[in-house]
Every structure is written in C-alpha cells, then in structure tokens.
Structure to design on (208 residues):
C-alpha cells in the first residue's frame, strides 16, 4: 500500500467497515461504550445524534467526561450549549471537572416557533472552527439539514451533538452515529442504532 493511500485511509470520513480508519476521539469515560464506538470514543469532528426516551434520563451524563477532557486541554476551544431546554447547572458541571470559563450558552429568539434561528446558529457555530463541542436541542430537523450540520462540523473540526426525541429514530439521518438512551436499573441503557465501523446493540451503563 502506498504512503499516499495509507494517509487517505486514515481520514475520519473514510469508512472501512469494522476496521474503521483511525480517528481522533474524546473518550466517553465509559469503557463498555468506548469499546462499542468506532475509534473508541466520541469523534472529535462530525455530527452525532442522541435520542433520549425523555428529558433527563442520563443523556448529559454520557457527555460530561468528554466535556471535562475538552475544556481542560491547554488548547481548549469553546464548548457551546445551543438552545438547551433547561439552564445548565454550573456547580454540577464544575464538580465533574468541566472548566466553566470555556462554556457558552446560546438561547435563540423564543418567538422563532419553527426553530430557524436555532438551526442557523448551530450551523454557524459548528462551522466557525472556534469550538470543540457544540450541544444543540432542535425542535425538528430534516435529513438535508442534518447533512448540512454534519458537513459544517467536519469543516470546523468540531463534535456536534444533536439531541432529538426518541421517536426521531424512525426518520432517516445522515449522521454517522445515532444512539438512543433510556433508563435502566443501574443508570441508563444506550442502544447503538447507527454506528459506522462500530458495534450494534444495547449497553447498560452505571451513571453517577
């Protein structure tokens, strides 16, 4: 295999089945989940979807270790919360190791019933290159819109996390990774619905 071809196959956009091209990741903090994800963690660039069965079932707990790791790096960029349904609780984030000075909360205009301003702000933030992670809660998103978000995240070398209701799993999506989250006896059950180069099925995680 030539050197140029080897370099090409290492690009995170190239999918090679279970022998996925190496990619830069943020470890999730959960060994079982890392083992099921391509690359061994959350990708550092691109869009993923998290589909909780209801608000507050542990979906944010899955991301806290990555948020802490991203914000504590010497070269840390911004971590943005876009249109969160509730105000992030700063003391809890700090207790989990998240550097609050690298966090930014954006609330688009409430009168925008269709969520157009939130989508626009999400896309521009992903594309800016100023952020490590952008979390967003959108009322709705069409496949073509999700494709635009994914391309914007890749261009900005940013991890975009789109939270949508569990029912959205019935819709098609260009996102490379889609997971569903629901309550379980010890914490949360994570189901890998779509994982290019990763595993499929459900994983039960113990959450703090």
């Amino acid at each position: 295999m030539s050197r140029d071809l080897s370099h090409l196959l290492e690009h995170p956009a190239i999918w090679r089945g279970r022998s996925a091209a190496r990619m830069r990741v943020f470890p999730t903090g959960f060994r079982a989940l890392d083992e099921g994800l391509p690359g061994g963690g959350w990708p550092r660039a691109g869009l993923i979807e998290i589909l909780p069965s209801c608000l507050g079932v542990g979906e944010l707990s899955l991301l806290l270790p990555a948020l802490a790791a991203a914000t504590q790096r010497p070269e840390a960029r911004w971590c943005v919360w876009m249109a969160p349904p509730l105000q992030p609780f700063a003391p809890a984030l700090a207790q989990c190791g998240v550097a609050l000075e690298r966090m930014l909360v954006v609330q688009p205009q409430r009168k925008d019933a269709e969520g157009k301003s939130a989508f626009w702000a999400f896309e521009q933030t992903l594309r800016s290159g100023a952020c490590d992670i952008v979390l967003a809660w959108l009322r709705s998103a069409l496949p073509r819109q999700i494709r635009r978000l994914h391309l914007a995240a890749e261009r900005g070398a940013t991890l975009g996390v789109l939270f949508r209701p569990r029912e959205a799993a019935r819709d098609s999506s260009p996102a490379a990774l889609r997971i569903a989250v629901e309550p379980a006896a010890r914490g949360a059950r994570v189901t890998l619905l779509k994982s290019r180069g990763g595993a499929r099925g459900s994983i039960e995680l113990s959450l703090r």
